[in-house]
Structure formats: structure tokens, C-alpha cells
Please model this.
Amino acid sequence: MKKLEQMYEGKAKKVFRTDDPERFIVEYKDDATAFNGQKKGTILGKGGINNRMTNMLMQMLEKQGVPTHFVEELSERETVVKKVTIVPLEVIVRNISAGSFAQRYGVEEGIVFDEPTIEFSYKNDDLGDPLMNQYHALALKLATKEEIETIKTMALKVNAALKEFFLTVGIKLVDFKLEFGRTSDGTVILADEISPDTCRLWDQETNEKLDKDRFRRDLGNVEDAYQEVMRRLMGE
Ligand code: TMP
Ligand code: ASP
Model:
């Protein structure tokens, strides 16, 4: 499959058209941003790690009945995916308090919830991805009622599967962000990526942060953390 012109460039990935109208090719970059692009940097090797980790996790999720955009890994940084229109919602699932949740509600990080939480942000960089509830999403026609129900059910299923999987390699899944897309026939499937850019991952024993918070918070050893997650998940 051939990469034709670039359709879109995001903060961490580029998306290309192909000769198949139902397929795109995504290319992962080493670029990293935080705080709505205000902080910029490079995490060497991140593109390859995020590409391969996402593909491995999406194939695992497919086996458990979650439809995803994954089609075929083309190279270290490139993957063929199903063409979708992204639902402009960032779907955030949390198992443990951290990040904006801890800040917003004035609680410490590390509180283990009895049940996972789900929240939505409006995917809109100009507005700084504002938090919204499902009624707001409906009012703005970002998704239908049925789509929102599907997205919530899938997000919880993804959480259960990922949480269990990460635990087998000694990692606590604190929280993560998902994005969903619609295929040309209107089916909602999991899209985007699942990586240390989009998940908070803490070592089970020490609570050491093994994710992009090392970059966001200038904690150092950013590359090492990405490599450590890769090593635990894929034995390299
Ligand atoms: P938050 O605590 O900053 O709201 O982040 C929750 C989770 O979502 C965390 O795992 C990081 C991820 N995330 C993204 O993937 N992209 C984003 O733009 C933001 C703000 C968070
Ligand atoms: N990547 C996001 C941005 O630049 C934020 C983040 O992941 O913290 O806005």
C-alpha cells in the first residue's frame, strides 16, 4: 500500500491518504507537546515505541471483542489503519486519582477508586480541549445518544482489558485517553493510539512514573521510561 499526500499533521502523528479509499497510513513522530502545545520537545525513539505498543494493544483488544482501526503494521513508525472520521471527544478513563482530576478536586494523586470514572473533553485545540458532559456533547451534536452509549461501554471494556494486561507486567494503569472514529458505514471503532503519551502508567511496586508525565513535569529519564514499558510489554 502506498502513502499518498498528507491529509493531516497532529502533535504526535501524521496521517496520509493511500490508494485505497478506506485506508489511511499513520506515521508516528518523536515530537512531544504538553499543556495544549505550550511545552514542546522531542522524546527520542518515542514514535517507534508508540506505534508498536499501540498496534500490539489494539490487536489484543480486537481479540477481546473491541473493534479498532488497526489493519497492518508497515514499518517501525508506520501503520495502515481503517479510514475514520474522528468523533471530536477525548474519552478519559481513570482508575486512580492523578493529573487534572487531582488538581480540579483538590485531592492527592494515588487514590484508588472503587469504580472507574469516565469523562469527556471536547477535542478542540483553540478552546484548550474543555471538559464536557455527555449532554453537552449531544447538544453540540458531536455524537448521537447511541454513539455515546457505545463509546462508554467500549471505554470500560478497554479499561478492564488494559488494566489486567498491564498488571501482568507490574504496571498500574492509572488513567488514559481514548479517541473513537466512525467508518464510512457509520460504525464506531477505537482509533488513535494507546501509549505512554496517552496513559498514566505507574510501576506496581514503587509507583515510579513510566509515562509522559516524566516529560510534562520535567522528571528526567523520559526515554528510559518509554523503553522500560516497551521492554515489559514486548520483551525488548
Ligand atoms: P489529565 O489528568 O491531564 O486530564 O489526563 C488524563 C489522561 O489523559 C492521562 O493519561 C493523559 C491523557 N491525555 C492525553 O492523552 N492527551 C491530552 O491532551 C491530555 C490533556 C491528557
Ligand atoms: N499532548 C497534549 C498537548 O500538547 C497534552 C498532553 O498530553 O499533556 O496539548
Notes: Residues 158 and 209 are 21 Å apart (CA to CA).
